[in-house]
């Protein structure tokens, strides 16, 4: 009944939240003489904090309306080009200048781990000037009726394969964090079947390929609990009147609680500073609002996918042990021969420890040396691997270069093995 109580509490707070929002506008209105006084700003700040801490954050928008290609600013149109019950494939269609050579086609597989695909807005934005970008937009499981069936790890791998088939020849795939395992599995399944539409390159970023290496707090929690414990304590049924009523899920608010508890002091300080900036009328509160509007927007995961991921990736370490199965058949990373492999890690990653993603280089034994590269970005944590200034400056250009070098439609120059500014292996 925990999920039902959570929903009941949210509904009960609705009138108080609405009243607080109205009063905040009144105290912040420039026509109100109190709005520019310490008392008025304190009241407005307190009411905003109450409203923000009691609301449900909806799915954010990407909001990427334009990008720069060369020296020209062009418009970007977001469109759904492929759809299934649990995922839409979004295309960021650019109004490319006439006469420009085709850019590489990249499929970004976003994490299905609680946050929406918009968490990778910065990733998409950084790559748009140089590539034709598609991204998986996973659907909140609580919004999918039970009549649509289940969604598990095998289905995830199948979705990736279907999307690669849809996009066609010479598509490159990027997996950010959690999807590193199913994306590698999809590539192995396609290669073993001699599928001509297997990706040209595969970039794995901050992913849990082998969580036995440098285990983090997340990895240790999984090792300390049994799968039955996770089933008994974190799996709940979607309450009425949501479209997915009675679907067993891992609720997004539980995942968010886990994320925030890892750095609780940092979040408390951030909210305290936000409140003080509002009272003093200084600083840049929009940055705080934008970050937490994104960070606090979460989605539910289907119970079967969540439990299988915990079991296979974090408890049994099935992929690095050669025991991962897909549709009853063993997944063989050694079958990957034609897919170039780039692995990217963050030096201070506290979710996927250093070495966990690089393990893909070890288990994919038959990828030629000139088609593989590993990059360790200094001074970044987990989110810095795919977002932020260092990603834009250091990581994104390397991804684009790697993708271009391993396009199957061009002659490939040799890949540089020593990179200044970072660490390679």
Automatic annotation (TrEMBL):
<dbReference type="GO" id="GO:0050526">
    <property type="term" value="F:poly(3-hydroxybutyrate) depolymerase activity"/>
</dbReference>
<dbReference type="InterPro" id="IPR009656">
    <property type="entry name" value="PHB_depo_C"/>
</dbReference>
<protein>
    <submittedName>
        <fullName>Poly(3-hydroxybutyrate) depolymerase</fullName>
        <ecNumber>3.1.1.75</ecNumber>
    </submittedName>
</protein>
<dbReference type="Pfam" id="PF06850">
    <property type="entry name" value="PHB_depo_C"/>
</dbReference>
<dbReference type="InterPro" id="IPR051321">
    <property type="entry name" value="PHA/PHB_synthase"/>
</dbReference>
<dbReference type="InterPro" id="IPR029058">
    <property type="entry name" value="AB_hydrolase_fold"/>
</dbReference>
<dbReference type="InterPro" id="IPR010915">
    <property type="entry name" value="PHB_depoly_PhaZ"/>
</dbReference>
<feature type="domain" description="PHB de-polymerase C-terminal">
    <location>
        <begin position="206"/>
        <end position="406"/>
    </location>
</feature>
<keyword id="KW-0378">Hydrolase</keyword>
């Amino acid at each position: 009944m925990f999920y039902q109580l959570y929903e009941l509490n949210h509904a009960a707070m609705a009138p108080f939240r609405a009243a607080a929002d109205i009063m905040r506008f009144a105290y912040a209105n420039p026509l109100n003489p109190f709005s520019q006084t310490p008392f008025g700003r304190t009241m407005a700040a307190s009411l905003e904090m109450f409203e923000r801490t009691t609301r449900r954050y909806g799915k954010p928008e990407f909001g990427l309306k334009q990008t720069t290609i060369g020296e020209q600013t062009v418009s970007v149109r977001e469109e759904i080009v492929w759809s299934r019950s649990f995922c839409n494939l979004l295309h960021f269609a650019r109004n490319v200048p006439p006469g420009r050579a085709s850019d590489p086609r990249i499929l970004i597989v976003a994490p299905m781990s609680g946050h929406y695909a918009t968490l990778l807005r910065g990733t998409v934005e950084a790559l748009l000037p140089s590539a034709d970008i598609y991204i998986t937009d996973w659907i909140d499981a609580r919004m999918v009726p039970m009549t649509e069936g289940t969604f598990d790890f095998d289905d995830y791998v199948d979705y990736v394969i279907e999307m690669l088939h849809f996009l066609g020849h010479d598509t490159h795939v990027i997996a950010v964090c959690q999807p590193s395992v199913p994306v590698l599995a999809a590539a192995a399944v396609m290669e073993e079947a001699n599928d001509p539409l297997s990706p040209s390159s595969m970039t794995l970023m901050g992913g849990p390929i082998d969580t036995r290496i440098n285990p983090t707090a997340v990895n240790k929690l999984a090792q300390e609990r049994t799968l039955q414990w996770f089933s008994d304590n974190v799996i709940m049924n979607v309450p009425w009147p949501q479209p997915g009523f009675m679907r067993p899920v891992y609720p997004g608010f539980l995942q968010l609680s886990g994320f925030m508890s890892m750095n609780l002091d940092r979040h408390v300080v951030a909210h305290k500073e936000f409140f003080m900036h509002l009272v003093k009328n200084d600083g840049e509160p929009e940055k705080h609002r934008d970050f937490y509007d994104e960070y606090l927007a979460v989605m539910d995961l289907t119970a079967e996918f969540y439990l299988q991921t915990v079991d296979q990736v974090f408890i049994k370490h099935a992929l690095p042990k050669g025991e991962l199965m897909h549709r009853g058949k063993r997944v063989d990373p050694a079958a990957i021969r034609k897919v170039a492999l780039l692995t990217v890690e963050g030096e201070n990653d506290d979710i996927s420890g250093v070495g966990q993603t690089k393990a893909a280089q070890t288990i994919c034994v038959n990828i030629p040396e000139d088609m593989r590269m590993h990059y360790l970005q200094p001074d970044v944590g987990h989110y810095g691997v795919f977002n932020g200034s260092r990603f834009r400056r250091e990581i994104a250009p390397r991804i684009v270069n790697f993708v271009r070098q391993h396009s199957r439609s061009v002659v490939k120059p040799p890949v540089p093995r020593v990179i200044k500014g970072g660490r390679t292996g």
